[in-house]
Sequence to fold (403 residues):
Amino acid sequence: MRSFPDVIMPPYTTSALSDDEIANLPQFLQEVLSSVRDFRAKRASRESVPVTLPPISGQDHSLPSSIRIEDNGATLYTGQLSPGCRLCRQGLWECVFITMECNLACEFCLRPYHEDDSIRHSAWANTPYKFTEFIAECGVHGISFSGGEPLLNFSELIKWLAASAIATPRPYLWLYTNGLLLTEEMCEQLKNAGLDEIRFNLAATGYRNPHILRKIEIAAQQFSGLTVEIPAIPEDLKIVIEMLENWSDAGVRYLNLHELIYEKNTNAWSMKGKRIPAVMNDGHKCSRNPDSISAILEIMNTADSMNLPLSVNACTVYGKNLQIQGRRRLYAKRSLKTYEKLKANGTAECFCAVKNGHLAFFAPQDPVRAQKQFPGCRLARMVRLLPLSPEQPDIWIDFEFLN
Ligand code: SF4
Fold:
């Protein structure tokens, strides 16, 4: 078996504090320690479900000769990655949700159930104007427009698209759709508003729906970057393989295959099929289908052997871990405190001086200053995961007293 190493987290340090010592700490530090303990307690489950590639030399799963394996195995593709996927894997991308409504109800859908109709377009900016500021401030290089089905609110989509297209440097812009509502006029308007790529979810309409294939041909007149983006459902492998040539002939250049995952609070959670637990590196729990990666490799192999001008990309759970790590870094302009040091893995480190129940925070470069300013203080080193949204509670992953 070929295992993906755990790349996201630094080695954990241990700080063996007695219960009495903890009880005497200021409330804030007790909360930090509780968060660190909780995070560490999940370490065993994170590591008990490594994301692995199937055997690479077995008769069933030989890798295509043209496969590229990058980022320690987190990125697997043949041909080329679409510009949007290149940005996504670096975490330089943000998704705007146009509407959470949809005209379909796919069994694999990962759209969370909502108790009300309110929509949060972006975690960091909820109007197109504020979003333009956010893009420039954080250095967002790629923006996707999703939902629900974004074409259900076309005027809102155009507003967000136009606001994103004026940012400098100009971000790469793409749209997710099931394609049902797409028209020739819409394609022209989307192109004029700055859209670069359309990604069709053909699993939503049964893969071979002639009405949708026609829409792809129409879209291909305006967009050179057309993508089919679908979950890799092992039971549907045969149909996908059958359709590769038709999709390619219709103008599809990229095929993005997601490892099939099941998230609580979504349709996908009750979908039939094999599942094993998966724990993301930040402790988020979901399930994944163990046969999905094999299906992806088989599709890659087939496209490769047919010599189609179609690049195939595997969007694995492991790759998602990597892009989430990058997005934690991306939002640092908004989330990093002045005394914190940003680390490459999306974490932030600081020092805390503790004296007579008071706390003062310092950048890791300043421990000497801390000890001068608070002679006799206890000095702690603390590390947290930077949040993915302004409201996300702090996840502390490391705490140790240095003296
Ligand atoms: S997967 Fe896409 S098309 Fe299907 S229900 Fe969800 S949002 Fe709609």
User: Anything to note?
Assistant: The first strand starts at residue 2 and ends at 3. The chain has two domains: 2-41+338-401, 51-315. The radius of gyration is 23 Å. Residues 1-14, 50-60 have pLDDT under 50 and may be disordered.
